[in-house]
Design a protein that fits this description.
Strand content: 15-25%
Number of helices: 6
Structural class: alpha+beta
Number of strands: 8
Number of domains: 2
Radius of gyration: 22 Å
Shape: globular
Strand order of the largest sheet: 1-2-5-6
Length: 216
Amino acid sequence: MEWAVLGLFILFLIVTYIVVQGTRAALAWRKAAAEGDVKVIRDIVEDSLGAWRSMKRPKEVPEEVWRGIQSMQIVEVDAELVRVSCQAEGDYRLLNGRWMETANPLREAMAVAAKGLDVLLYELPHYKPGRVQIDAYMTMREADHATERVCILSTTATRDDARQVDWEEWTPAQIVEALGGRYRMDDLGQPLPIEVEAPKPSEDEDAGTPAPPFKR
């Protein structure tokens, strides 16, 4: 009986130690991010993007939107800004021998941007960015030009902007319009390329910093 009690006590001490160490690490990362440590912030964002890529699609999120979320890549990170790119290709199906567009790339880009802004503003652990920018790209193919990847939508949201958005009730198009998303369309409603600013050079970062704790 005494050995069983001793074993339980030792197990309790081990679990307590692990919890305390995890809590201390989380607090340290939260403090570093709040102080603007770009290396820590980049690691937090990268770890979150990696987790979403491996995560099963939530039932309420359409497949094409989740595919866009999983395509997100870091473009630029600083103390206040998280900027990512994503992919939105639309959908085409062969109907009666002809390829028909069944999902417009720009509409898909808006849906991905709306969901991406939501998760980056509210679901990153240890860090709450002051501003998030999502640049949505598609592959443009023209008969007389080489295939190229072009930006068709760029949307930026500050935390103040985000508070004015009804993330549950508004459509992606309404969210993008409210946030001043930039895009162009031709007469047929097809997206046209837009210019986006080049990312700023990244700051020198300490390569020896360990990976941040992340709750899955």
